[in-house]
Design goal:
18% strand, Ribosomal Protein S5, domain 2, 148 residues, alpha+beta, 4 strands
């Protein structure tokens, strides 16, 4: 894979308030300690209904956000470190899920929110292993919904 394939630009970040609120109110959840994944697949109509003028063009096919609660990691440097590790593990391992989301005709955008649950810092290898497991669970759920 080239470096361009693994870029993580603004269209990949979930930042619009209406979409974030919708994700946490209607999304499905998977756990694999120390990560919790809340996700939702939106059709074009569902995405358009969240905005007055329709879904913005800069919304990517796969979007994510990372949350490290202050209650779990009190020091800002620890929260930033865990956010970076989670984001990097996602960036490296997202390609199969992105291909699946793009191949499903009913999906306009697939949104993912990762929440860190552990009271201590986890090493990158553990985060990456759990990230792969969670992304595989979403892929299986999407695949079964797409076929069914």
């Amino acid at each position: 894979m080239s470096a361009v394939d693994l870029s993580f630009d603004k269209s990949c970040r979930l930042h619009l308030k209406s979409m974030v609120d919708n994700l946490f109110s209607r999304g499905k959840t998977f756990y694999d300690f120390p990560l919790r994944l809340t996700w939702i697949a939106l059709s074009q109509e569902e995405a358009d209904s969240l905005f007055r003028a329709g879904c913005p063009a800069d919304v990517g096919a796969l979007q994510m956000l990372v949350t490290v609660p202050k209650k779990k990691r009190r020091r800002a440097v620890d929260r930033v470190l865990m956010r970076r590790r989670i984001r990097e593990a996602y960036r490296i391992n997202r390609r199969p899920l992105e291909d699946l989301a793009c191949s499903c005709p009913g999906i306009r955008t697939l949104q993912l929110a990762f929440i860190y649950l552990k009271n201590e810092n986890a090493d990158y290898a553990e985060i990456e292993r759990k990230m792969r497991a969670l992304l595989a669970k979403v892929a299986v759920a999407l695949d079964s919904a797409h076929e069914g």
